Amino acid sequence: MAYADIAAFFPILLKGAVVTVQITLGALLLSTVLGLLLALMKRSPLTPVSALAGTFINVIRGLPIIVQLFYIYFVIPELGIDLSAFQASIIGLGIAYSAYQAENFRAGIEAVDSGQIEAAKSIGMKSALIMRRVVLPQAIRIALPPYGNTAVMILKDSSLASTITVAEMTRAGQLIAASTFQNTTVYTMVALMYLALSLPLIFGVNRLERFFARSRQGADQ
């Protein structure tokens, strides 16, 4: 692995890494918003609303992410909605992972002690206020570990955007390897750069978990 090759390839891969981060953040935000909405819908007392959310979650989880990306990028434009490959990758990954986020949030919400909800009702709090003040803060803490894992999975699966020509890090590596035949150097660099992006996410989630754990211990004392 020549240092000259590394120096030549790194700036190109770094540009791809910037696109990878942009896709990850966009998809994470979209999946979080949609996932929370789906989780609340699934817990709705209205059967049609709950059934709709459950059906959507099952369908999305049953489809490969790459198929969803292809559908959004190649099929949606035929319906008159023009999307760039970058936009399609964010929307595709965001929708795909919203189903997993929904299950993360739902599990967190259902893990909250029902006694606290009853206590809040007994002092006259409305359902929306109970959800915002009592349930969601605790549910978020409970859902944080799987949420962090999902964020790492989105980062890694952002590489699938290369299949619809997005110039993210994997795509940049493919182009460099195809033109230089330095497969070992290029893909080792790509792997290390993905690891470098993933580790801060993992450490950040671990710090948040410890913070919430200390906060809870302080509240219990």
UniProtKB/TrEMBL annotation:
Places the protein is found: Cell inner membrane; Cell membrane
InterPro entries: AA_ABC_transptr_permease_3TM, ArtM/GltK/GlnP/TcyL/YhdX-like, MetI-like, MetI-like_sf
Keyword annotations from UniProtKB, A to Z: Amino-acid transport, Cell membrane, Membrane, Transmembrane, Transmembrane helix, Transport
Pfam families linked: BPD_transp_1
Keyword Transmembrane: yes
Gene Ontology MF: a single term: transmembrane transporter activity
Gene Ontology process terms (BP): amino acid transport
GO CC, any one term: ATP-binding cassette (ABC) transporter complex
Predominant localisation class: membrane
Keyword Cell membrane appears in the UniProt entry: yes
Domain (ABC transmembrane type-1) ranges: 17-205
Membrane-topology annotation of the record: Multi-pass membrane protein
Stretches that traverse the bilayer: 12-40, 52-76, 186-206
Family classification: Belongs to the binding-protein-dependent transport system permease family. HisMQ subfamily.
Protein name, per record: Amino acid ABC transporter permease
Organism the protein comes from: Salinicola corii
